[in-house]
C-alpha cells in the first residue's frame, strides 16, 4: 500500500488521529484531514488523492453529497465510506452516490487494509458489519423491476450494456458523451453492486435483461 494517497473526512479529531496512525502503519500517506463534506470536496480538488475515507454524518455538506460531487468531478479518486451508520438506507445512498466501499467504524486495521486494496483494484467492498444491510437492499428488488436502485436512465443503459454494446455505441444510441457513459456505467456497477463490467452484464442477464437484441 506504499504510495497510496488518502484524504480523511471525519468531524471527530480523535478518530482522525487514530485513523492517521492506522494508515501510516499500512504504508499509506494522508495528504489531508478535514471535518466536513465541503472541505472534503475542496481537498480532493487540491490534492487529487487515490482514496477518500468518508464519514457520512458531518456538519454542513454531509458525506453522501460530498461523495456524489467527488465521484462526479474527480473520477480518479475512489471513495471508501467509514461510518457508524449501519442502516440499509445509508448504505444504499452511499452506493448511489458512487462510493466503492462501505465499512463500519468497528472495522479492524486488517479490515481497512483489505478494503483499501479491494477498492484500488476496482472492486466494491461491503464490510462484514454492513453486509446484512446489503441483503436487505437485494431482497427489496421486485420481479417487475429487478434493480429498483437504478434510475430509469441507468436501467436503460444497463439494458444496452447487457446487449453487448460498447461505450461508443451506447453513447450514440442515447445521445450522450462517451465520458458520461463511462461515469454512468461506473455508477451502475456501484449500485448493483458489481466488481467489473463483465459482472454487471452477467447480473443483468441473470435477471433477464438484454438477452436478445
UniProtKB/TrEMBL annotation:
Residue ranges of every copy of the Response regulatory domain listed in the record: 5-120
UniProt KW keywords: DNA-binding, Phosphoprotein, Transcription, Transcription regulation
InterPro entries: CheY-like_superfamily, NreC/VraR/RcsB-like_REC, Sig_transdc_resp-reg_C-effctor, Sig_transdc_resp-reg_receiver, Tscrpt_reg_LuxR_C, WalR-like
Keyword Nuclease carried by entry: no
Family matches, as Pfam families: GerE, Response_reg
Molecular function, one GO term: DNA binding
Matching SUPFAM superfamilies: C-terminal effector domain of the bipartite response regulators (SSF46894), CheY-like (SSF52172)
Modification 4-aspartylphosphate, positions: 55
Ranges where the HTH luxR-type domain occurs: 143-208
Name this polypeptide is given: DNA-binding response regulator
Lineage: Bacteria, Bacillati, Actinomycetota, Actinomycetes, Streptosporangiales
Amino acid at each position: 500500500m506504499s504510495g497510496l494517497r488518502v484524504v480523511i473526512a471525519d468531524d471527530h479529531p480523535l478518530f482522525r488521529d487514530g485513523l492517521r496512525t492506522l494508515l501510516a502503519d499500512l504504508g499509506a500517506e494522508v495528504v489531508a484531514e478535514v471535518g466536513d463534506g465541503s472541505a472534503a470536496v475542496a481537498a480532493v480538488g487540491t490534492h487529487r488523492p487515490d482514496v477518500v475515507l468518508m464519514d457520512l454524518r458531518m456538519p454542513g455538506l454531509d458525506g453522501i453529497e460530498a461523495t456524489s460531487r467527488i465521484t462526479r468531478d474527480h473520477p480518479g479518486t475512489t471513495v471508501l465510506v467509514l461510518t457508524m451508520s449501519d442502516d440499509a438506507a445509508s448504505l444504499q445512498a452511499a452506493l448511489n452516490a458512487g462510493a466503492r466501499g462501505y465499512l463500519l467504524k468497528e472495522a479492524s486495521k486488517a479490515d481497512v487494509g483489505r478494503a483499501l486494496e479491494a477498492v484500488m483494484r476496482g472492486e466494491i467492498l461491503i464490510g462484514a458489519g454492513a453486509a446484512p444491510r446489503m441483503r436487505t437492499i437485494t431482497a427489496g428488488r421486485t420481479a417487475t423491476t429487478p434493480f429498483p436502485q437504478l434510475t430509469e436512465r441507468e436501467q436503460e443503459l444497463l439494458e444496452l450494456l447487457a446487449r453487448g454494446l460498447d461505450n461508443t455505441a451506447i453513447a450514440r444510441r442515447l445521445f450522450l458523451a462517451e465520458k458520461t457513459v463511462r461515469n454512468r456505467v461506473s455508477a451502475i456497477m456501484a449500485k448493483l453492486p458489481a466488481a467489473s463490467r463483465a459482472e454487471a452484464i452477467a447480473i443483468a442477464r441473470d435477471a433477464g435483461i438484454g438477452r436478445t437484441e
